[in-house]
Amino acid sequence: MDTSYSVLYSSCHRTGLLSGFQRLRSQGKMCDVFLEAGGVSFPCHRALLASSSEYFWALFGETTAERLAGSISLPALTPEGLDAILDFLYSGWLSVSKSTLPVVLEAARYLQVEPAVSICERFITDGLNVENCCCYANLADHHTLSDALEAANQTIAMEMGTLLKEGKDDLLGLNIQSLMAVLDADEIPSVKEVELIKLALDWLTENGPLSLLKSNLLLSRVRFGLVAPSDLNDLSHAHRAMATPLIRSQLTRALEYHRQGPAQPIKQSRQTTLRASPNRVLLVGGGSSPDSPEQQLLVFDPRSRKFSSVSSCLPLRLRFHCVCSVGGFLFVIGGEEVKEGDEDGKKSVTVATSKQVWRYDPRFDQWEKMESMREMRAQFSCSVVDDVIYAIGGRHTRPDTNTHASLASVEFYDLVTGKWRRGATMPRPIYGHASAALNNSIYVSGGFPGNPGRIHGGSNQVDNHGDNEDDLRGRGCREVLFWDLKGKVWEKRASMSLARFCHRMATANGHIYALLGMYEPFCDIEQYDSQSDHWTRLRPLLVGSFNYGMVTMPSGNILVFGGRRWSDGQEVVVKSVLEYDTKKDRWREICQLPRPLTGTECTLMPLPD
């Protein structure tokens, strides 16, 4: 006997079943219960209601008084809300708009129709904008819609600048949980912290009086370290909530932070961290010509791939300088200062090697001159390890003899004392090299070396060669030096496959990458594995370039900005922004600079809009 059989499913049966119930309901046939809200009665079928809602399943249970009632009053609901939910139960379609959303959501929650609640939550999340985000946040908070609440809070944070100007009343009507979540946000574009503090105080005035616990919970989320000392003194008397012991202690810590001076970068906390994306690229200096550097600061946003300008500018016109960021501060170190003058109606240009160090604080858009390095340096390298800045090698021009002194010395900046101290001297002078930090150690590659031999202390080796770049063709070296910062000497590591000069090094995903330098015959880049002490050639660029800006993103990808390249026998400054995917070994152009740029230096740091 054949016992096999098939089970087949009809996709239209369920739709037809609901359509049948909807037709019976619209005709008032076979309805066995009436639901009443706001004086309006709705004929319904108990079986469908009980099978679609936990509320009606319990209401029509075997032991309830309502199980046989002909009419049931629902005074907590409005006719509009109940009608929308009944239409949903009978058809699967939920009609909802911004104006009806509150009553529909109230009915869905009350009647425990969770699919309708989910649709309302999705409606909130998909429709968020600056006009409704506060209203929707309150609605999501009231009905415990966690995903919608989080999305609404994020929208409020991102639109805070507009809301403070055009929707202040909406902000003052915001529920306290949302306001605390917004004040916890790490990114609130185009808003100064003092404005957020004033908002919190106005909210407390509008919604008070609150318990000390709640006011402390709210105010402890603002970042007093981002407020100028003069404003902190004014704010401390602005509201009685500012006088609690907890808030006064936070004000005191903020004032102490402002007095830290050189140590501010290593005294960072959440209270002093900018509410901005930490992964913006700052392009410092450079220009459309290698001999005419500008004082501009450009910001690149990797998310939008757009550039913007910083209102402030470099204190000096520099080339061959170094930059780095520590604790959210920018450091601009050394380089050659280019000055233009006008003597007897003729333009003149003077170039002098600098040992100056400037620090930029994006919190207040302020530059401050820090203690200078021990030696003037240009065409040197700097690396940051454990919040310590190391300046390595380089050279400077002696103004009296117009000769060049190559440097073997290394110095590091002690942020606690604000002083430069001597580090382990390299085996010989070198400039035009590159350096990178890996595993709390520093690697230095290539460059143009001075005479061989050990150089003691911080002494220099004089190199009388001129600056003519034609004299540097074919120079550079393949040598790689390694310094374990716990030791006192530099050691040799495996050499690169190519001699490089004025090139770049980057650390990404546990490896070191050496990128193109000046006058290289090929466009090769290579990767260094510190475990095997081995270099591997990778996919070359299609067109070589040099004197570009470079930065490593948190993803491990490397961005290259502008630079110079050869075209028809001439040097051309380019606008391209290239991305190298270190995992896929792939290059691509992702966008272009606003204009051609060469000689810029790059670093990652949080920057306000």
List keywords for this structure.
four-stranded antiparallel beta sheet, Neuraminidase, alpha+beta, 609 residues
Q: What can you tell me about this protein's structure?
A:
- The chain is an alpha+beta fold and 609 residues long.
- Among the domains are: 192-259; 280-342 and 349-605, Kelch-type beta propeller (Neuraminidase, 6 Propeller), CATH 2.120.10.80.
- The protein has 15 helices and 37 strands.
- The chain has a 4-stranded antiparallel sheet, with no helix packed on it.
- Mean pLDDT is 90; it is low at 452-474.
Q: How would you briefly describe this protein structure?
A:
The chain is α+β, with helices and mostly antiparallel strands and 609 residues long. Helices cover 25% and strands 28% of the residues.
